[in-house]
Amino acid sequence: xxxxxxxxxxxxxxxxxxxxxxxxxxxxxxxxxxxxxxxxxxxxxxxxxxxxxxxxxxxxxxxxxxxxxxxxxxxxxxxxxxxxxxxxxxxxxxxxxxxxxxxxxxxxxxxxxxxxxxxxxxxxxxxxxxxxx
Length: 133
Fold this sequence. Notes:
CATH architecture: Alpha-Beta Complex
InterPro entries: Papain-like_cys_pep_sf, Transglutaminase, Transglutaminase-like_sf
GO molecular function: protein-glutamine gamma-glutamyltransferase activity
Structural class: alpha+beta
Oligomer: single chain
């Protein structure tokens, strides 16, 4: 797909979800956002880049709320979300793993660099009043 609205380098495969749960710029649709932008942590591009990035790079985090209202992290997982992104294979009834098109391998230097870039663009952070166990 050509994306003249984004400049050179963002043509090609786009992420799109026509069945989201909330409106994006007044429309119930997510995307299109270049697949390359998601993999590279480019969250300033149209449309819905931060949401799609979070969908494939989320961590599961467990917190407990104390009587005084503080929340303390007590567990979670970095391997339950985004580990197997797939699509139907062309010409056969099986799946094709396309995770590598969306993200770098978990724990790799590239993955850490992309997360740092995305954190800077989107100001990802812990919520105030939450602490580590």
